[in-house]
Amino acid sequence: MTTKTNITVYSEGTPNGLKIHIALEELGLQYKLVKIDMFKNEQKEPWFTEINPNGRIPAITDKTADGVELKILESGAILEYLVATYDKNHLISYPYGTKEHWETISWLMWQMGGLGPMMGQSNFFTRSAVGVHQYSIDRYVNESRRLLRVLDGHLAKKGCNFVVGDRLTIADIAIWPWVSATTSKSAAPGDPCAAKLDAAAASSISSRVASLSSSLAATRTTATPTAVRTSTSSAGAGAARPLQTAFAAACVLCGVALS
Questions:
Q1: Do 65 and 154 have their domain in common?
Q2: Pair (136, 208) in one structural domain
Q3: How confident is the model over 105-115, as pLDDT tens digits?
Q4: Other CB atoms closer than 10 Å to residue 203's CB: what's the count?
Q5: What range(s) does the GST C-terminal domain occupy (predicted)?
Q6: Domain of 164, in residue numbers
Q7: Degrees, nearest 5: CA angle 19-94-80
Q8: Is residue 49 assigned to a domain?
């Protein structure tokens, strides 16, 4: 069963974009998807900067009960908005003010302020920067490794593959797309950034990547994407495909390979 909404998602298959699709699918929300072609710099075009002045994805629009349009940017803010507005049964959150609620927010901010930016810069300087910037590579790769060790230690101490409590939350959803790319097995063959970070993806993290996929699969027997797809390209557009998990649905919407 899905819930109709006025949500439009402006996104692409990046780690930050994938967060939003996973959350929407887990909550069973219908939404319209506008895929942004970042190779054409569509995120910098005037029509999009009216939605997000920062010119980055993801962003969403929605309407309040009295019809006021909302424009929300930054993936962490979008995740918080979705659970505050639509997760009344706490499928991917905990009740406001509880210990688990604040732990969820803490780890969400940890990802937003630390893991994501550091891994993003690691990726840039090992894959995209012109020339070799060894100081920058060492700086961002080593900090990414440190942050991964923090997560690995936390998960090992908990003895559970969820960051907070005993179930999936927006903290897991925010962290997963970044962590899943840290091992060579998860990344494209020969990916230099993944190879540099691979040593930091210790047992607890590796177990978590597999376990979270299994946990998502266990929550769905038959799932179909709930997006009304509006793509800037024809690839993948059209009828909804039958999928096994909400995660798989999000991957298809973003054009991300599951293997």
A1: no
A2: yes
A3: 999 999 999 99
A4: 10
A5: 97-226
A6: 99-217
A7: 40
A8: yes
Q: Is the pTM of this model over 0.85?
A: no
Has residue 1 been placed in a domain?
Answer: no
Closest CA to 258 of 1, 22, 8, 7: 22
Q: Cα separation of 202 and 170, whole Å?
A: 22
Tell me, yes or no, whether 53 and 122 share the same domain: no
Domains: count for the chain: 2
pLDDT digits (tens, 9 = 90+) for 69-104: 999 999 999 999 999 999 999 999 999 999 999 999
| Beta strands 227-230; 8-11: pairing state | unpaired
**Could you tell me if 151 and 45 lie in one domain?**
no
According to DSSP, the β-strands at 227-230 and 31-35 are parallel
- Report the C-alpha gap between 111 and 190 in whole angstroms: 25
d(CA 86, CA 65): 12
